[in-house]
């Protein structure tokens, strides 16, 4: 594999980790500050087991870090750029939605052809 192929594979792995709504919710929650697993269970409504699976994926992709303090695990984003990346994607989606809406509105403004003209 070339270094470029490896780089694109790593990009794909990170985007795959971001491709689940609950993982995005976890990232959004951690963007507001560090939380324990128990707090994340309460805030996201996930079961402990399901939360653990999502956190493992986010940790494996280097998006979330866990600091162990006694019996508690405190989770945080590894970088503010994780949240910034999600914000850029959110803005892109909103732009696409606006373009789609604008296109629909433009199509609705087209004056229908009168049958009498034929």
TrEMBL record:
SUPFAM superfamilies: Winged helix' DNA-binding domain (SSF46785)
Presence of the UniProt keyword Oxidoreductase in the record: no
Taxonomy, superkingdom: Bacteria
Pfam family, one: HTH_5
UniProt GO molecular function: DNA binding; DNA-binding transcription factor activity
InterPro entries: ArsR-like_HTH, HTH_ArsR_DNA-bd_dom, Metal_resp_trans_reg, WH-like_DNA-bd_sf, WH_DNA-bd_sf
Residue ranges of domain HTH arsR-type in the record: 3-97
Signal sequence, start to end: none
Keywords: DNA-binding, Transcription, Transcription regulation
Identification of the protein by name: HTH arsR-type domain-containing protein
UniProt organism field: Sulfuriferula plumbiphila
